[in-house]
Amino acid sequence: MLALAVGVAATTALADSPPARVVSMNVCTDQLLLLIADPAQIAALSPLATDPAMSALAAAAAGHAQTSGRAEDIYLRRPDLVLADIWSDPETVAMLERLGVWVERFSPGVSVPDIRAKIVTMGAVLGQPDRAARVLADFDAQLAAIERPEHAPRAAVYGPGGYGYGPATLEGQMLALAGFENIVAGPGLDWGGRLDLERLVLAAPDLVIAGAPGASRAEEMLAHPALAGLPIKRQLHDARWVCAAPAMLGAVAELAAMGRQLEAAKQEVKQ
Predict the structure, then answer these.
(1) Which stretches does DSSP call E strand in the chain?
(2) How far is CA 47 from CA 40, 50, 65, 147, 211, in A?
(3) What does the pLDDT look like over 158-193, one tens digit per residue?
């Protein structure tokens, strides 16, 4: 809410002159900028903007300049607005602010209200409330159109080193939106924690979501013979899972469809 308040206040001051040169420092602010800005406003995107493994809008970013992320490079692009994440390099942000550059910091957010607030805030700071309203309406329509399984299948999002993502994480929120029950839940597990192979096997989830094969040595434990009977999907956790942004709904819809398939398969077995 702080980011929203700051953004609205700043835009009120600049109502007659929306920022003409906007630089994004973060792959997630890249995505909102690409969706809401007039293309002429975009001076540069983050270094990860065109990385298809990290950005769900890599193709849309391809025609725009990219910054190295360093304060000197950003400043020389003469921005009148810089978009950052609250985890962006504080020294870079501080230097830009000392040089008189307006830096708007966005929280990563994980929930649907977080995403809706970020869309509104981005529209406000860019002086593009009508574009933001259209993006928000499309987001709400896509969310409402998702068909979830009737009875929640049980799932885990399994990360490097055996990390299980809890319900307060973006991954956990996406599971919930798709109609799944997250097996990584309970006291102290809101943000997740270590999920040993033994616990994973005993939990017998209907689905285990992991990164693509070979993504890291820390994920090779998924090749353990003890997991041979579990339904592990290693292509689902793609760039759409990186940011709490509208593109994630495509992944949620696919996950919900998989949940309905799992539910139908269970019904067939019972019959």
Answers:
(1) 22-24, 42-44, 81-85, 103-106, 154-159, 163-164, 181-182, 193-194, 207-209, 232-233
(2) 19, 8, 9, 36, 22
(3) 888 788 999 999 999 999 999 999 999 988 889 998
